[in-house]
Amino acid sequence: xxxxxxxxxxxxxxxxxxxxxxxxxxxxxxxxxxxxxxxxxxxxxxxxxxxxxxxxxxxxxxxxxxxxxxxxxxxxxxxxxxxxxxxxxxxxxxxxxxxxxxxxxxxxxxxxxxxxxxxxxxxxxxxxxxx
Length: 131
Description:
- By secondary structure, this protein is mainly alpha-helical.
- Helices cover 53% and strands 6% of the residues.
- The protein is built from 6 helices and 2 strands, in the order H-H-H-H-H-H-E-E.
- Strand 1 and strand 2 form a beta hairpin.
- Helix 3 packs across helix 4.
- The chain is globular.
- 24% of the residues are buried.
């Protein structure tokens, strides 16, 4: 990776694009982050820290990127991202989604990537990257 690191939002957006599109973008930074998303927790922790995300926010992002277009409710996200042995309030998901949106959305007040499906939950819409 080059000495100059792109902004966290740009890195994340490029990694999302690399993951959900058929063609790779070709930049070293994008390929490096894409590789990190696909690897284990220690690597994720390092790249999350570099991008300004908590590890849990990064894990949530990784989950959404690898499961596009499907709606998950809070309890499903708690089970699938936090794990079955963790006992936290379902609203914890809302807090993490809100923080994650601040990093990856163009306008976190009008999210396009991580969309709220009213009365159901959240889904990742990779098509928003092309808009």
